[in-house]
Amino acid sequence: MRSRLCRLPTLAVTVAGLTLGLGGLPSQLAHAADDAPATNTIQLSVPLDDLPAVAPLATAPDADAVAFQPVTELERELDERHRSVASQTIAGVDRHTRAVGRGDTLMDLLTNAAVPRNEASDAIAALRDVYDPNKLKVGQQVTVLFEPRRGGTRKFVGLEFQPSATRSVSIARKPDSGFASSQAEKAVTRQVVAAQGIIRSSLFEAGATAGVPTGVMMALIRDYSYEVDFQRDLQAGDRFEILYEKLVTADGATVGDGDVLYAALVLSGEEMPIYRHKSRDGRIDYYNRDGESIRRALLRTPIDGARITSGFGMRQHPILGYSKMHQGVDFGAPKGTPIYAAGRGVIEEVGPHGAYGNYIRIRHNTEMSTAYAHMSRFATSSKRGARVDQGDVIGYVGSTGRSTGAHLHYEVLKGGRQVNPRSVDLPTGEKLDGRELQDFLLTVRALDKSFEETRGALQLARNPAGPQNGNDDKSCAKTTTC
Questions:
Q1: What are the residues facing 292 on neighbouring strands?
Q2: Model confidence over 305-322: pLDDT tens digits?
Q3: What distance in Å separates the CA atoms of residue 439 and residue 277, rounded to the nearest whole number?
Q4: Model pLDDT, residue 456
Q5: Distance CA 306, CA 253 (A)
Q6: pLDDT (tens digit per residue) in 227-248
Q7: What angle do CA 163, 166, 171 make, to 5 degrees?
Q8: Cα 340 to Cα 396: distance, rounded to the nearest angstrom
Q9: Of the candidates 97, 109, 157, which has an alpha carbon nearest to the alpha carbon of residue 134?
Q10: In whole angstroms, what is the distance from residue 19 CA to residue 24 CA?
Q11: How confident is the model at residue 58 (pLDDT cuts 50, 70, 90)?
């Protein structure tokens, strides 16, 4: 099977503005190796907005925000009605920054800064038009603004703070009376980043070594949970590559991560690529190269980064001391690790359940159910009769009931009887056809081409003069297989 992962470089670099190919894609190469991790990985960055239209992307929450306006200049934060008061106060304003303490309210913070209580109350009332003051978190920095007056007195004229990396909020005194609120958003652009590496002990660790953010690796693991048993299927020397979104502000600050656009695992020589594709009706899913959805009725592994500590079958019970049928699979994980619903369904039982401890059972259809035991606690939405979607968090790992340590006991029930989760034949999701398949194949070509051309540009940057002294290029970077 074709593999593009065998050409792993020995020097990690970061390339911004890589050539992606296809109409409208960037072609200028820039080098930025200083911040790259010293591993056998590549990290590459290019504005995602330049991807071809055949690979539609989900809009990030802040992607359509208006341009950011500096919070340090109040006249730029106010509308036309309030510009006059801003110009009167900005020139000689005194700024006092305070942190929200544990148990503090905004009223506490303002009165402790010597703001009269009635004025603090008016300012907070104005703030509610754009922000809920109850959402202020411990440690949040709030800047209180005063206008110096003769005789050493001060007049409270407003406040400002940033509730997030992309949003600023301010309050300013109006010319007549009271206060007006305003807010501004930093414009966020989406860039794509590519990384690849060799798996030594776990996929999660390999991703961390390659500099892939934790949230992105968690999403990747969930995406592959339909097909891959991360305890048994991965071997040292297996490889991965990934293309994912990064959310960046105009000043270059990374404020979040978007979706995985493409990924591939090579496990024991078999390549398993997945591609993110948006269908004509707006649905977004991941498909293999043939256009078959990777989703199955149930996840093989309903928990991130866990190891199998006990499989399905007869075993020496660790507490009872005698041989007993183990009718599920145990996943060892730290207490508090999120547990996901293995499939869409209805919660038919939730609560204490004898030796199972805190227990949830989900009915997926007339034949299949799944059960989850020993939880430390349930998700707030986990109620009897509640509907859940595949991947929803339903609870958290614990050690309640008959348990020797924190783990998830996971069961698959078919016709009311426990069956081996690894042996269940699970139906796959949809298969694209017709015009939808043709659209998907364009997406595949676009994402594959971006990776191939990126790799070629990287090789050119590392070897601008080509092979030296007549030696052949041994890097395998100019072929599609090796």
A1: 431
A2: 666 766 656 655 555 554
A3: 9
A4: 54
A5: 32
A6: 787 767 888 999 999 988 888 8
A7: 50
A8: 9
A9: 109
A10: 10
A11: very low
Using CA atoms, how far apart are residues 31 and 11, in angstroms rounded to an integer? Answer: 13
Return the CATH fold of 307-419.
Glucose Permease (Domain IIA) (2.70.70)
Contact present, 192 and 18 (Cβ < 8 Å):
no
Q: Do domains 74-185 and 307-419 have the same CATH topology?
A: no
For residue 126, the SS3 value is helix
More confident site: 5 or 304: 304
Q: Three-state SS for 406? A: coil
The answer to whether the CB of 12 falls within 8 A of the CB of 41 is yes
pLDDT, averaged across the chain: 75
Can you list the alpha helix ranges (DSSP code H) found in 71-179? 74-77, 83-90, 106-112, 117-127
Structure token pair of residue 179: 């206060």
Q: Which class does domain 1-60+190-295+429-482 fall in? A: alpha beta
Domain positions in the chain: 1-60+190-295+429-482, 74-185, 307-419
Please tell me the predicted confidence (pLDDT) of residue 429.
65
Two tokens at 427? 């139906």
